[in-house]
Write a structure and sequence with these properties.
The chain is mainly β. Helix content is about 10%, strand content about 60%. The longest helix has 15 residues.
């Protein structure tokens, strides 16, 4: 009987610490913003091409997603003969490693090689960060 009570308390306390998500899916489509890179006015464009269930769950049973996106920078200053060109396909996912195992996050996505992306509660991309010529580029949409 004592072991049963301890087991019930342990099960109840684990459910109290469960990680809840809203299940916000990222919207497909393109978005762009104007930024300055190396003193050149540049268009930063992000295109969400594919959203796919990873078929993996986090430690709390929440499903993780893979997102294929294309990031591009395009700008030039003809008077100084400077151009900014960048075009890369990136696979983001929302499964993160934490101290207690793994955790799916609703609004944060990251790629294995460093880029990060954030969405809002409606699934729209609001921020992407990546490296270009050893500099961190932040595009806010």
């Amino acid at each position: 009987m004592k072991h049963l009570i301890i087991g019930l308390i342990a099960a109840f306390s684990m459910s109290a610490f469960a990680h809840k998500i809203e299940g916000t899916l990222i919207l497909k489509g393109s978005i762009k913003s104007k930024i300055v890179v190396n003193t050149v006015k540049t268009n930063c464009k992000l295109k969400i091409e594919k959203v796919k269930n990873l078929m993996v769950e986090d430690s709390f049973g929440n499903p993780a997603y893979n997102v294929r996106a294309k990031i591009s920078l395009d700008g030039e200053d003809l008077s100084r003969n400077i151009s900014v060109k960048f075009d890369k396909e990136v696979w983001f996912n929302n499964l993160f490693t934490v101290a207690s195992g793994t955790e799916v996050r609703d609004f944060d996505y990251a790629a294995a090689d460093g880029p990060k992306m954030k969405i809002d509660s409606e699934g729209r991309v609001i921020f992407v960060s990546f490296l270009y010529n050893s500099r961190s580029i932040n595009c806010v949409f």
